[in-house]
Design brief:
D-Maltodextrin-Binding Protein, domain 2; about 20% strand; transcription regulation; alpha/beta; rod-shaped; WH_DNA-bd_sf; Arc Repressor Mutant, subunit A; disordered C terminus; 2 domains
């Protein structure tokens, strides 16, 4: 093992004496006593086994304290090391004073609250040097440059994902409800509220699901909401049965706040979700890291998909 380095205060004292030519002036520079500087120099010389400084002798001999031949070689190395340490400390201070870069991520309201929010929070905890901000954006194709968005999760038709966009995940739709509300048999649906989000996608409409399950149309039982997360919130509260969308509801299923009904019956979603980054080079490498993190999170989820069980018409445009 290499020999232990001398204490940094002793090396600083040595450099100060060599620079000032006097123990007293070096002590004033370092804001310590002359005896403290003298003690540090003696300790350093004892540790290295050789004199490092000449001593001035009241007008006789040396008129100024300076480095010996051995001390001159050490002085050059010490001054270079102290200068590099000072530069490194200045760099750290400058970075600490700078505001953290703000990076913007967006998705539509349901995806942002049910899927993206917990994953963004988990990623942000690993990258505290960056400030993350999530927006709920409903536009089909927001202008990422004009709106200052670094990464967006967008909807697209299956098979219509074009580079450089990346497919994040496809959806699967099936009925869900609170565990406290589970009833046996499809006929039980006719006695419960059927919670439905406003959408033109047929797999999200209860009329298609009732036909699939061999039930007559429900009269007065369908309660509509403007958003998916509202319908799911009502289902978690035990207000009825909703049409869940995986992976949006995967966390609620895993936590036991929702249960899946009529498995393995499911329908594929009319939309897929894609990742798009701001055109050109990312402002921060964390954007690419977040993209890869979200892709890995989507790939690792346990799939609940089943083959299409009902031939339904293509969905219309997004409301």
């Amino acid at each position: 093992m290499p020999a232990a380095l001398p204490p940094l205060p002793a090396l600083r004292a040595f450099a100060a004496v060599a620079r000032e030519g006097s123990f007293a002036r070096a002590a004033a520079t370092l804001n310590v006593s002359t005896s403290a500087v003298s003690h540090q120099i003696r300790t350093l010389e004892d540790q290295l086994g050789t004199p490092l400084l000449t001593r001035a002798r009241n007008g006789a001999g040396h008129s100024r304290t300076g480095p010996t031949e051995a001390g001159a070689g050490l002085l050059a190395a010490v001054e270079e090391a102290l200068a590099r340490l000072a530069d490194a400390c200045d760099t750290v201070r400058d970075r600490a004073k700078r505001p953290r870069p703000l990076l913007i991520v967006c998705g539509n309201g349901s995806l942002a609250s049910l899927w993206l929010a917990p994953r963004l929070a988990a990623f942000a905890s690993l990258h505290p040097s960056v400030a993350w901000h999530m927006r709920a954006v409903e536009a089909e194709a927001p202008d990422l440059v004009a709106e200052g968005i670094d990464l967006a999760i967008l909807r697209a038709r299956p098979g219509a994902v074009l580079p450089p966009d990346r497919l994040l995940f496809e959806e699967t739709v099936f009925p869900v409800c609170s565990p406290a509300l589970v009833a046996t048999g499809a006929e039980a649906l006719l006695r419960l509220n059927l919670l439905e989000e406003e959408s033109s996608s047929p797999e999200k409409a209860w009329r298609h699901w009732l036909a699939l399950l061999g039930l007559p149309p429900a009269r007065g039982r369908i309660v509509r909401f403007s958003g998916f997360n509202q319908a799911i919130g009502a289902a978690i509260a035990g207000a009825g049965v909703a049409l869940g969308r995986s992976p949006m509801v995967d966390a609620e299923l895993a936590a036991g706040r929702l249960v899946r009904l009529f498995a393995p019956i499911a329908l594929p979603g009319s939309w897929v979700f894609t990742l798009r980054t701001r055109p050109g080079l990312a402002r921060d490498p964390h954007v690419a890291q977040l993209r890869d993190f979200l892709l890995a999170a989507a790939a690792d989820r346990k799939t609940l998909e089943a083959p299409p069980l009902l031939d339904i018409p293509a969905a219309g445009p997004r409301p």
